[in-house]
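Posting here for the record, re: N,N,N-trimethyl-histidine.
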Amino acid sequence: MVTEMTELARHVAEGLARNPKTLSSMYFYDDAGSRLFQQIMALPEYYPTRAEFAIFREHGAAIGAALGGTAGESFTLLELGAGDGAKTKLLLRELLAAKSEFTYAPVDISAGAMSGLVATLAQELPALRVVPVVETYADALDQLHTQPGRKAVLFLGSNIGNFHPADRLDFLRQLAAPLNEEDRLLIGFDLRKDPRRIRAAYDDAQGITAAFNLNLLTRLNRELGADFDLARWQHFTDYEPLTGAVRSFLVSTEAQNIHFEGLELTVPFAAWEVIHTENSYKFTRPQIEALAAEAGLRVVDFFTDGAGDFADVVLAA
Ligand code: AVJ
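Prediction output follows.
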């Protein structure tokens, strides 16, 4: 019997019918995937999280001031893709210390990550007002239009790097649309650097990133009744310095048919055929400035870590 297709089912049927076959990195983040991403953030090779931490440690007060606005005036701090919120806590502490009046609205598609975040916030920052939102970015953005009062939106960790260039501009325009003059946007961008360091960050020696990528297949086995045998798949990633794109793939090491029991679907794979699962773009400062301008946004502040590995950019409409 064919039951109602879930969003994931529709996405998989559509993405695996394409050439090249594609799945969205958005589906990495089931509860197991969110836990693997937490392990990635602690890897010696994965520099972005440490670099953004360094920015918040060094410039937290200035960033808080840029987002906090006028003292006493209340606002909503919405964070897209909050995850475990470890970095955000530094900013939340700055805002609380500055006596800002605000409600923190973390948005994440992982219910597990969200309940973990809510629990640690209640313990570590009991004075904080939190309204958790378990939704996709798109749904959360729709709500921004009807959100009363001043808004500050966080989009950290170079999540913006996952967007294809064409979608990236659309997304920024969508982010910009509900913003009033006094609202602020803080976006994290991973900057271009030694290509070998970038490549290593997505192909770590312990194989955690490989497990993170392959977990997508485990998710399809569980949720769509697929029969992926993980022994016949490999993680592969490369960095292309001309475009600034890290691209990640799942590689079929032999010819095979994959059955999706839940979808009444069989997908053939040739030997060494790939599924493109993620883009993680790296940026230059002029590129970020041009992107902001194209989206109708003004660069208010541009913060980087000492090594120049990462940038947190304050934008306004
Ligand atoms: C969560 C999107 C910022 O692209 O660097 C890490 C995800 N993928 N290792 C990134 C990821 C492989 C990460 N973001």
